[in-house]
Amino acid sequence: MLVCIEGAAAPFAGYPGEAADGASQERAASPVERGLPRDRVVSDQSEMYKGQRITVIIPCLNEEQGIEQVLRRMPEFVDEVIVVDNGSTDRTSDVARSLGARVIREDVRGYGRSYKAGFASATGDLIVTLDGDHSYPPDAISYLLEAFLHLDIDFLNASRFPVRDPRAMAFKHKVGNLILSLAMSILYFRWVRDSQSGMWVFRRSILPGMKLISDGMAFSEEIKIEAFKSRTVRFAEISIMYSSRLGEIKLNPWRDGFYNLWFLLKKRFS
Asked: Within its chain, how far is the Cα of 221 from the centroid?
């Protein structure tokens, strides 16, 4: 289902409540107990969203600047925020803990590796993902959840296209994303507008049925493939507002782009 609304490593084998190998968990004392204003921190109270417990997972690598803005804009109804620190050398973990997030340290580098650690520790019924660089809008979470529940689906991909902010994505990145999304759509006979998006909403219950191999940037396309190729997972995609990131750029467009294209071919024909 496509809905457009304007506005090589070991596979994942973790189960909720168990930390992934190599990951350690840290939980700070309540920011409210330390005297921080309740409206400036992520809520520690279980709010529930229409009967669904919400977990937000944010992988981070030196996102001291961006993670603060992300957490300050986190909706109050979010029950659990997990920040996966993938070996940061700045104050990412300290900032996240000070704003009420649960911090997990994953020292083995990798975008996919970070998500696997986060998934293994999540307790929510629905998982929402976004990056720690403030490029994905935390205030779009309620919009995505409403669409997710209204469409009665299992996996929702938040497409960054069309990109409305000209500063948010360089032309070469737009071209690269188009090529990768077209390749995925052709290989799997399923149109996907943004195969590389890092913002998704999905039911935690679908994770055990996924074979997630990638530990790197290809994880983003792999989890979508695992979702829409399943006969029991209902998949949809809607557009969000994407903005320019805060902090240093980690993506190597040529290396990561060619590797992701190779990974698509490998996964399709292996």
From this structure: 12
